[in-house]
What we know:
Blueprint: E1 7-12, H1 17-26, E2 35-39, H2 49-54, E3 60-62, E4 74-77, E5 83-87, E6 91-95, H3 107-118, E7 122-126, H4 135-143, E8 147-151, H5 160-168, E9 173-175, H6 177-185
Parallel strand pairs: 1-2, 1-7, 2-4, 3-4, 7-8, 8-9
Antiparallel strand pairs: 5-6
Amino acid sequence: MKHKxxxxxxxxxxGSFPVASEILEALPKDFEIPIxxxxxxxxxxxxxxAEALQLKSKISVTEPEDKDxxxxxxxxxxxxxxxxxxxxxGTFALSTEEMVHHSRPSIDILFYSAAYTFGNKMLAIILSxxxxxxxxxxxxxxxxxxxxxxxxxxxxxxxxMTKASLDLFEPNEILTTKEIVAxxxxxx
Length: 188
């Protein structure tokens, strides 16, 4: 069966790194759908984040440069201190515009841009996090037809982000880490 998603876009903050790592570890090396992570991180630490995720991943994990082409069989991590956006030609764009919810990269901006670009061909997932960034963005993605998953708040290290999302709308699914991993793995 051919999957319908052109992109899997995942946002998270405090407590989301282990979930991202578990997702990547579970995927086969021929997993086709590009995965894009927007995760809050310290802006002055430029290296190590993608590399740490790559340790357990069978697919390539990189931080995209401005105008890089989005490739299947890759995972991307928004670079420190840049908003990550999508362009209609299938490339990434980086921006240093104002912070959103004290964050750059902003998960809201990532979801808004992804929803505009991919619409109902997008799987949008929000994970554990300590602020509300991402809630409005995933809600917007849901309105644009994206299939939305919110991590079960009781399964989160810090449930602020997932609770803020659930306060705004009812996603397609509310899943634990193990269920999220299984859902993505079953797309192959």
